[in-house]
Amino acid sequence: MTNRPRRVVLITGASSGIGRATAELLAARGYWLFGGVRAAATTRPLAGVELVPLDVRDDASVKACVEDMRSRAGRIDVLINNAGVNLVGAVEETSISQAQVLFDTNVFGTLRMIQAVLPTMRRQGSGLIVNLSSILGLIPAPFMGVYASTKHAIEGLSESLDHEVRAFGIRVVLIEPYYIRTNLDASAAQADGRIDAYAPQRQRTAAVITHDTNSAPEPKLVAEEVLRSIEGPYRMRRPVGQAVLLRWLRRLLPARLFEPSLRKAFALDPSSRDAAVTEPPSRLPRQ
């Protein structure tokens, strides 16, 4: 009987929340875990996890982390792109610089990590890339519009990438949670601008988000889905918890039924469109 070598996993944003729960679970299952954190010296130790300095916003940091991991383990079997930040505020209230910071972590950080590990995965002829998306990559998110746009970007990037790398034995997975009880929303930045016209709606929506986050499942629920994505049958999209239902509703319901329910869920005022029957567009006159 031969001992099967441990699969080597790198997860970003391993210091807290979903990243920490996932690292703990995979390490307990016997994986060789490297946990990328921005401040390795001050991060609480994780049993069975090798904490490595990593800032996904910095090209040099990403390159150094992946090269160090490859030199120590000899391969990279799974990359889990978990690092992310949130931003609360209306689209009009959000500065371009704030949006750039959000995209630099959530989208370009994911892209940097993917580009760093792919040469190794191609050479070894196998690999799995697990990207933490969100149900907000599939549905609108009032007052989190820029954050939602980063998750929509991750959805398109991941699906396109999967077609490009299949021939090399590499696949891509999307994990799509709904609200999870983490510090992501509690520590979310606020939009730079404050426009009075949005204040009543923003406050009601923020209260809903806070309530739903506080009553949401623990990060372990997502960690368990990540584990299934590694060990179970391949599926690209893996919604978690209530996201399973929301994904089906978005696909099956017409907009005139889905949108009023979404506005109600986010405590938004009903719009005149919600009560109106959608009429077919009039035929344009021929030129």
What does this structure look like?
By secondary structure, the protein is an alpha/beta fold. The chain has a single domain (8-275), classed as NAD(P)-binding Rossmann-like Domain (Rossmann fold). It is 47% helix and 14% strand. It contains ten helices and nine strands. It has helices at 17-28, 59-73, 96-124, 145-165, 183-186, 199-214, 220-231, 243-252, 255-265, 272-275, and strands at 8-12, 32-37, 49-53, 78-81, 87-88, 127-132, 170-176, 189-190, 237-239. A seven-stranded parallel β-sheet has the order 3-2-1-4-6-7-9, sandwiched between helices. A two-stranded parallel sheet has the order 5-8. Helix 4 links the parallel strand 6 (127-132) and strand 7. The chain is globular and about 60 Å long. 38% of the residues are buried.
Question: Main traits of this protein?
Answer:
Rossmann fold; single chain; disordered C terminus; 287 residues; two-stranded parallel sheet; alpha/beta
